[in-house]
From TrEMBL:
Protein name: Methionine synthase reductase
Record domain Flavodoxin-like: where: 9-152
Biased composition (Polar residues): 164-174
Region span, Disordered: 164-191
Alphabetical list of InterPro entries matching this protein: CysJ-like_FAD-binding, FAD-bd_FR_type, Flavdoxin-like, Flavodoxin/NO_synth, Flavoprot_Pyr_Nucl_cyt_Rdtase, Flavoprotein-like_sf, FNR_nucleotide-bd, NADPH_Cyt_P450_Rdtase_alpha
Gene Ontology molecular function terms on file: [methionine synthase] reductase (NADPH) activity; flavin adenine dinucleotide binding; FMN binding
Keywords: Amino-acid biosynthesis, FAD, Flavoprotein, FMN, Methionine biosynthesis, NADP, Oxidoreductase, S-adenosyl-L-methionine
Domain FAD-binding FR-type: from-to ranges: 326-594
Cofactor annotation: FAD; FMN
Length: 757
């Protein structure tokens, strides 16, 4: 029996892409094991399902979007919270814990959760522990794991007046926590027979019952062999999963390998280096703290008599996409053009979409999203590897395992109940995403080779955090890479549906101006090439840019000696057989040039970052037609950078023509791989510093607006630093004062960024 409200707390999430929600769900799972009663809610349910004014203890997990903005789901919540009329003690009774998620590659890191934190404090709420802000640039897990594993539950229990070794009904907390993290101790090898794993089932009351004969349990032997049952009407039903095994938690005691496994023998005489599949002492020899195995919750049933027409299925079960301003429409790719030379390091393509049937309008600087699909080859690879190819296209029904231990278990809304395995893997699940540690932990249970099992345990353990970052997250490896490297790992396919995140659309800036080209939308992108190596067995292309380039294959396969001829060729092709892609326009956008033409513009966009500025300049050219006094018009500067003048100077003709017509007062271009070291500017920020006198006068005296578009990882930061440096030098200010001046521009929305990592 629980004690009325004493162990209850409100658990809120403000999610844009599902990360904050997933973390809040994990908090909910773990809270119960800590004897707590979470009341889980999306912040959008404010004043419908919860009232902050009535709460005394709240945990909030919130993500950040755009330039530090609230997720779409948090707009109403935030509007109410920031009402100026609220008294200072409005939330005086509230105690809270806050976890913010953000990405420091973007301006205003965790701005929204930080604002919420500040506002809660202003309204009298008290922090139970200091707020935590996790950074996706270094891996959210770096901050989230210690927060989840060590901080919140002891703090919550203490705050709620529960002792940290007893549940609210007086039982021992250890007893109530059957799935707490396990310790994997290699020194327990004496307990094992013939170097095999011993699996112990830990019963709910905490007593442990060693598995009689030390053999692999049912769970491990059954999981990859679907049970074939007759449904009684000649339809074969295959039940995936061994639910029973997953309802129980396990402490695994792994043997130290007394004999080297095959890969070790191969490596015996080579220089041994750590990599994805191999560790060295001390990690390979230490005891490991591994997370509890996430409970299984989905079960699949196939009907091989029914081949589903997946074309009739709504895209991702009609579950809304984040940031969508419009519905999804299929539009025709009217033309494709290669913008770079054959010898360019990257191939840039410009595509023109015919959006005349959609009724959409867009502003220069707006972006839109393309709903992409995973490459067929990779989907086939997974289906084959998991031995479910024969069920790939028949009707598959998902249900929640009735006796699952997962709280609030539900079929992910974007999957829907009915589909096919191929359909979900191709269109709905992000099969390329880096497997989370919980997923790796679940994979351990489906891996038979002891060496591979141990390595997967290491990668999801506390002790192996650095290896997880180095060998999985940094090289951006996905599930296929893991499966190809760990050959004895064969998870049931339902595990993928439980753990793989949703495949999200990819966004691109419009390159054109709607007023100049009504009914058309141009955009540009580099085809992303991802080489093999660092654990990646095969080279790949980016999911969306790869999909687009293969749709326009006739163009790309031809020798690109005469670009215009090839463009015409694709035009003819697309007329015969329209190539269509599903797209939608994005909302909440602010990367727009000021309507007032007297405001000077400084635009910085190396590589494809120049995309939105073509639209800016097209619009400006149009607007200038109705201006009689050109003297009143502000200056326009564009800093563009690429590698070589003759290979990747994209939009060269357009930019030079804008400069000739004085739509662009200053076109400053630099080539990063042409000038010998030390001669001339290499990058846009070097060029900016060469013109620091003009630039600083424009921003500090003529109220110029700055627009930066392109790479978030390095360029955007370096450019901001260059502005600081320029102000420092030109005005004789200290670095701090110069930083404050740039910060002021950011706050006053005179320094805009549209950066992508
Ligand atoms: P890129 O070809 O990789 O690079 C363009 C130029 O930038 C090269 O000369 C490169 O020099 C240089 N560069 C490298 N590091 C730099 C730094 N720290 N500061 C300044 N310049 C630097 O560019 P890209 O692939 O087109 O990338 C542009 C970025 O814009 C991508 O992140 C893309 O996602 C983003 N973006 C795309 C769109 C779109 O709609 N497609 C819109 C907005 C933004 P070296 O290689 O010689 O070092």
């Amino acid at each position: 029996m629980t004690h009325g409200k004493s162990n209850r707390f409100l658990l809120l999430y403000a999610s844009q892409t599902g990360q904050a929600k997933a973390i809040a769900e994990e908090v909910a799972e773990k809270a119960v094991k800590h004897g707590l009663r979470p009341d889980l809610n999306c912040v959008s349910n404010t004043e419908k399902k919860f009232w902050l004014e009535r709460e005394s203890c709240t945990v909030l997990v919130s993500s950040t979007t755009g330039e530090g903005d609230p997720p779409d789901t948090a707009l109403k919540f935030w509007k109410r919270l920031k009402k100026k009329t609220l008294p200072d003690d409005h939330l005086g009774h509230l105690n809270y814990i806050l976890l913010g998620l953000g990405d420091s590659n973007y301006t205003n890191f965790c701005n929204f959760p930080k604002n919420v934190d500040q506002r809660l404090t202003e309204l009298g709420a008290k922090k139970i522990i200091p707020s935590t802000f996790a950074d996706d640039a270094v891996g959210l897990e770096v901050a989230v794991e210690p927060w989840m594993d060590d901080q919140i539950f002891p703090a919550l229990r203490k705050h709620l007046g529960l002792s940290n070794d007893q549940t609210s009904d007086g039982n021992s907390l250890a007893d109530s926590d059957p799935e707490a993290s396990s310790v994997v101790d290699p020194d327990h090898m004496q307990d094992t027979l013939n170097n095999r794993s011993v699996t112990q089932d830990v019963h709910e009351n905490g007593s442990s019952m060693p598995d009689g004969d030390n053999t692999v349990t049912n769970a491990e032997s059954m999981d990859n062999q679907p049970v074939i049952e007759s449904s009684g009407n000649d339809t074969q039903t295959i039940l995936d999963d061994a639910e029973e095994s997953d309802a129980k938690s396990k402490v695994i005691i792994e043997a130290n390998q007394t004999e080297p496994c095959t890969s070790e023998l191969q490596l015996e005489n080579e220089d041994v280096e750590e990599n994805l599949v191999r560790s060295l002492p001390p990690l390979s020899e230490c005891s490991l703290n591994i997370p509890a195995c996430p409970p299984r919750f989905l079960s699949l049933k196939y009907d091989q008599d029914i081949q589903l027409n997946v074309k009739s299925l709504p895209i991702q079960n009609n579950y809304p996409f984040p940031s969508a301003k419009t519905d999804i429409q299929r539009v025709t790719i009217a033309s494709a053009e290669v913008l770079t030379g054959c010898d360019a390091l990257k191939t840039a393509l410009k595509l023109t979409l015919d959006i005349s049937s959609t009724g959409w309008r867009y502003e220069p600087g707006d972006s839109f999203s393309i709903v992409c699909v995973n490459p067929d080859h990779e989907v086939d690879q997974l289906l084959n590897r998991l031995e479910v190819f024969e069920y790939a296209d028949c009707l598959c029904e998902i249900s929640v395992i009735e006796e699952t231990k997962k709280r609030n278990a539900a079929i992910p809304a974007y999957l829907g109940e009915n589909g096919t395995l191929r359909y979900w893997l191709r269109t709905t699940l992000d099969i390329r995403s880096v497997p989370k540690k919980a997923f790796l932990r679940a994979l351990v249970e489906h891996t038979t080779d002891p060496g591979e099992k141990r390595r997967l345990q290491e990668l999801c353990s506390k002790q192996g955090a650095d290896h997880y970052a180095r060998f999985l997250r940094q090289p951006n490896l996905g599930l296929i890479d893991v499966l190809l490297n760990f050959s004895s790992c064969k998870p049931p396919i339902a595990l993928l549906l439980e753990h793989l995140p949703r495949l999200l659309p990819r966004s691109y800036s419009s390159t054109s101006c709607f007023e100049v080209k009504p009914g058309w939308l141009d955009f540009v992108f580099n085809i992303i090439e991802i080489p093999a190596g660092s654990g990646r067995v095969e080279a790949k292309q980016g999911i969306c840019t790869g999909m687009l380039s293969s749709l326009c294959k006739p163009l790309l396969q031809s020798t690109c000696t005469n670009v215009s001829e090839l463009t015409e060729h694709v035009k003819t092709l697309s007329l015969k057989e329209p190539i269509q892609i599903p797209v939608f326009l994005r909302g909440n956008q602010s990367f727009h040039p000021p309507a007032d033409l007297s405001i000077p513009l400084i635009m910085i966009g190396p590589g494809t970052g120049v995309a939105p500025f073509i639209g800016f300049l097209q619009q400006r050219e149009l607007s200038l037609q109705s201006v009689s006094d050109r003297g009143s018009v502000g200056e326009t500067w564009l800093f563009f950078g690429c590698r070589h003048k003759d290979r990747d100077f994209i939009f060269r003709n357009e930019l030079e023509s804008f400069a000739e017509k004085k739509v662009l007062s200053h076109l400053e271009v630099c080539f990063s791989r042409e000038s010998p070291e030390g001669c001339g500017p290499r990058y846009v920020q070097d060029n900016l510093l060469l013109h620091s006198t003009d630039v600083v006068t424009l921003i500090l005296e003529n109220s110029a607006e700055v627009f930066v578009c392109g790479d978030a990882n390095n360029m955007a930061k370096d450019v901001k630093q260059a502005f600081v440096k320029a102000i420092e030098t030109e005005k004789g200010l200290s670095a701090k004062e110069a930083e404050a001046a740039v910060f002021d521009m950011l706050m006053n929305r005179r320094y805009h960024e549209d950066v992508w990592s």
